[in-house]
Specification:
Elements: H1 6-20, H2 32-39, H3 43-55, E1 59-62, E2 66-69
Antiparallel strand pairs: 1-2
Length: 81
């Protein structure tokens, strides 16, 4: 069985952190450099994480300001639904 790609694993971990309350609407995510170091991956992998999270509208990016969590009630489904 093939391993889950890093960008999917990391984006799923961020979604789990939102579900657990670690991140709340409006919270700023760590920088790309910080996430690279935390997960031991390249910046291109973190860019893919952001693309995936943007696709489900879980984050919004503001150039020069950072990446922010959006309101989970609009995109986060309850487990099992």
């Amino acid at each position: 069985m093939p391993a889950t790609p890093d960008y999917i694993r990391i984006s799923d971990e961020i979604i789990s952190a939102v579900r657990a309350g670690k991140y709340k609407p409006g919270d700023k995510l760590p920088s790309i450099a910080e996430l690279c170091q935390e997960y031991n991956v390249s910046s291109s992998t973190i860019q893919l994480v952001f693309v995936r999270l943007e696709a489900i509208e879980a984050i919004r990016r503001h150039q020069g300001k950072g990446v922010f969590i959006t309101d989970p009630s609009t995109w986060l489904r309850k487990p099992g639904t």
